[in-house]
Amino acid sequence: MRRILILWLCTASLSAFGERLSNPRTEERVGRLIRNMTLEEKIGQMTQRSGRGGVKAFREEIRLGRIGSILNEVDADSVNALQRIAVEESPNGIPLLIGRDVIHGFRTIFPIPLGLAATWNPALVEKGARIAAVEAASSGVHWTFAPMMDIARDPRWGRIAEGFGEDPYLAAVMSVAMIRGFQGDDLSGPASLAACAKHFAGYGAAEGGRDYNTVMMSENELRDVYLPPFRASVDAGCATFMAAFNELNGVPASGSSFLFRRILRDEWGFEGFVVSDWASITQMVPHGFAADHKQAAEKAIRAGIDMEMQTDSYVAHIRELLDEGRITMAMIDEAVANILRVKFAMGLFERPYTDASLFPPLLNAEHLESAKQAALQSAVLLKNNGVLPLSGNLKRLAVIGPLADAPHEQLGTWVFDGRAEDAVTPLAALRSRLPNGPHVDYVQTLAYSRDRDTRNFGRAVKAAKKSDAVLLFLGEEAILSGEAHCRADLNLPGAQDALVDAIRKTGRPVVLVILAGRPLTIGHLLDRVDAVLYAFHPGTMAGPALADLLFGTESPSGKLTVTFPKVVGQIPMYYNHKNTGRPPRAESWVHIDAIEVGVWQTSLGNESHYLDAGFLPEFPFGYGLSYTAFDYRNLKLSSGTIRHGDSLTVAADIRNTGSLAADEIVQLYIRDRVGDITRPVKELKGFRRIRLEPGETRTVRFTLKTEDLAFHNRKMEFVTEPGWFHVWIGPNSAEGLRGEFEIVQ
Ligand code: NOJ
């Protein structure tokens, strides 16, 4: 049994990954089946129901072939019981597909995806998804609604927690890693989950960072910024796609044949199936895009939405729409074929049941160790005046704050199957790590992050005064991010700022550890504390990972994958912005306090900045400190000129100049100086996580192909234009060694 697991965990990175879903034998089986199906059964395949209300209600419908998929039923025995009805009693014995939101772990919870991205470690992300797949599959799940690959440039948006941040390249790499992990090297394996690329498309660009809100963007921006992870997912063999809730340029995604027929099917050749989001088809009525559910169903089918999640518009109206000639049987057959193709590829016809005894236990030591590794590598050190790592000789440690011992909160958003009782909190880990070490005084002080009750501040201050160092665990509870949980104010909620002030006055060294689902505006706190470690929501193993980082067993190595603004008013703020005709410069930033009262306004010499917040973020994309220091030298380009179709090697020497072994994330950026469409000031094109011993130097080499520099021009052609480029190798998006090269025809 153990051997089987090891095989399942390892094979994901082998060669069969990314194979096509269709092949002549499958198409033949799909065709034969469709010829035998009644219209009722076809509509059934296009229908997904939620098991939350109790699955007993579905038995009869399954027997009649009226349901093709169920979400939110997670128990191998009850899934098997339902499956038996589908396979043995429904007219054509078509197995059910059981879906679940397995977003960052199943029972073993990994950091939220924004934290996972901060590891810049796709192999670790893949392993996490593999573990999630093994655990979920053992509970009867076949299909996860992940990865969410929506680019997010607005930290107010609660779902920024669920994605990989603001960069299309990084999000594509991480999405592919997750898909590999979920689907394994063979979709028909017993521990493989079908992945789902979501939400197609543009969902992360909701106006004002308010969930479900309107999205307006140019096709160039859509294709160059928001679509690359989705494109990469198709190439990686992702089995399913999910439609977004939002409208895009006036058309709700669920009714967009531009997205699903033109781009996804015709341009990209996607062979899997598309599911709506929860009720997103009927929501085309409030969107003002369909008069009623019948018209919504028609528009969704025409757009290419193969399966309806939760609502009933397909069941209620497909027959009528066919009779009236508003849709065709060919459209229905195509949707059903897309769904059946995935069911065949998953081997559900051969192996419809889950044998839970074949699987390793949930939350086993190997799973927990990987979750700890991910939590370790995802934390980002944002400030350190030398107080970290903490010395092993401390006598008394004060542990303060609402998130030091909050097992449910550290798991983060979208956790359906993880349990608070499995989570090891920072407090528990510090106590067990230090049985003979410093005495730990714990004062929760605030009951939860939004708590405004300052009555316990006195106790916290007392504990701080007696201590050699204070660890403040602040941030946001899990429920403050995620779907529909957006915030307009990104400061620490409740009385947490006041708590920082109260503790600071004790004069003790203060380490601020933040657990949160998004970037928070913490600039005003930086000079009130000695160090800041940003942990996102790190999952089940938050405690052991953070204890290791705080005491220096391992150096922090995570780097931000989203820009941290100084204040909310700067949003949207992202590193790969355009330059403008009047780009800002530090030396000419006019500060609001420097303006004389009554002076005339002038349009001369002004640049693009805010009078009160300048133009720089608090922390740039790619930023993160370490307990050691890295020196970047000797940028070398294999050539100063390359021809179309050729490639260029860019290399630099990275040296660990400190006294600790640590990982560094080396980043490659380019800037295309002039374009048919203006180009961003920087674009990430590669990265590498390397480990360096003290004093060690490594040459890191990147290969850039001219096709890596392509973008969509005004004619919507994907082209690399000749001309000059800047290239940087550096530790983040704001620093680095710069070179230049030219592409010639
Ligand atoms: C709505 C969310 O937008 C989607 O991401 C999720 O997968 C479904 N609900 C199912 O829970």
The helix fraction, in percent, is 25-40%
| Discrete helix count | 20
Mean pLDDT: 95
Shape: globular
Query: What's the count of strands?
Result: 26
Low-confidence stretches: 1-8, 10-16
CATH topology of the largest domain: TIM Barrel
CATH level-4 homologous superfamily of the largest domain: Glycoside hydrolase, family 3, N-terminal domain
Instruction: Assign the CATH architecture of the largest domain.
Output: Alpha-Beta Barrel
| CATH class group of the largest domain | Alpha Beta
Strand content: 15-25%
Give a quick account of the main beta sheet: strands, pairing sense, barrel closure. Answer: 6 strands, mixed
Radius of gyration from the alpha-carbon trace, in angstroms = 27 Å
List all distinct small molecules, including ions and cofactors, that are bound in this structure.
1-deoxynojirimycin
- Number of spatially distinct domains: 3
How does this model look, in words?
α5 links the parallel β2 (69-71) and β3. This protein is globular. Strands 11-16-15-14-12-13 form a six-stranded mixed β-sheet, sandwiched between helices. The protein has a five-stranded parallel β-sheet with strand order 4-3-2-1-10. A five-stranded mixed β-sheet has the order 18-26-25-20-21. It is built from 20 helices and 26 strands. It folds into three domains: 2-358, TIM Barrel (Alpha-Beta Barrel); 379-550, Glycoside hydrolase family 3 C-terminal domain (Rossmann fold, 3-Layer(aba) Sandwich); 630-744, Immunoglobulins (Immunoglobulin-like). 28% of the residues lie in helices and 19% in strands. The chain has 745 residues and is an alpha/beta fold. α2 crosses α15, α8 packs parallel to α10 (228-235) and α13 packs across α14. Bound molecules: 1-deoxynojirimycin (NOJ). 1-deoxynojirimycin (NOJ) is lined by residues 101, 145, 198, 277-278, 483. 1-deoxynojirimycin binds at residues 101, 145, 198, 277-278, 483.
